[in-house]
Write a structure and sequence with these properties.
Elements (H helix, E strand, L loop, with lengths): L1 H23 L6 E7 L8 E9 L2 E8 L2 E4 L1 E6 L2 E8 L2 E10 L2 E8 L2 E9 L1
Antiparallel strand pairs: 1-2, 1-9, 2-3, 3-4, 5-6, 6-7, 7-8, 8-9
Organism: Flavilitoribacter nigricans (strain ATCC 23147 / DSM 23189 / NBRC 102662 / NCIMB 1420 / SS-2)
Protein name: DUF5640 domain-containing protein
Keywords: Signal
Length: 121
């Protein structure tokens, strides 16, 4: 009887954990995102944004072609990710809005504002 009760409790606990995980996955900003930027020079128009959480802090790496850039001042609030980086001596501020496996947003530099779109890889 005790074994049956333990198995039932374990099954209920696992079911609750899987249900909670399924509810939280769509809002997860972590992952590798392929992006396209409109109106930018061709060499910067496509790339990847990797977002991960390390020791409680979010880290972002921007990959364009063979170059990777660690970014600073990363903030994540709900499904909104903000960060900035220097590219060719120009500060670029990026705002991303995550909706499931899609992203939209903008990159702002002294050259202007450029819309971004992409999806999770």
């Amino acid at each position: 009887m005790k074994a049956l009760l333990a198995i039932t409790k374990t099954c209920l606990l696992l079911s609750a954990l899987f249900a909670f995980q399924a509810m939280t996955l769509p809002g997860n900003v972590e992952g590798v995102w392929a992006y396209e930027a409109s109106g930018t020079p061709p060499e910067y128009s496509k790339g990847e944004i990797t977002i991960k959480k390390v020791e409680g802090e979010y880290q972002v790496v921007l990959t364009i072609g063979q170059m990777s850039f660690n970014v600073d001042k990363v903030t994540v609030e709900d499904q909104k990710v903000d960060f900035s980086l220097y590219l060719e001596d120009s500060r670029i501020t990026v705002t991303l809005n995550i909706d499931g496996d899609k992203l939209s947003g903008k990159a702002v530099s002294y050259d202007g504002t450029f819309p971004l779109k992409g999806e999770r890889k």
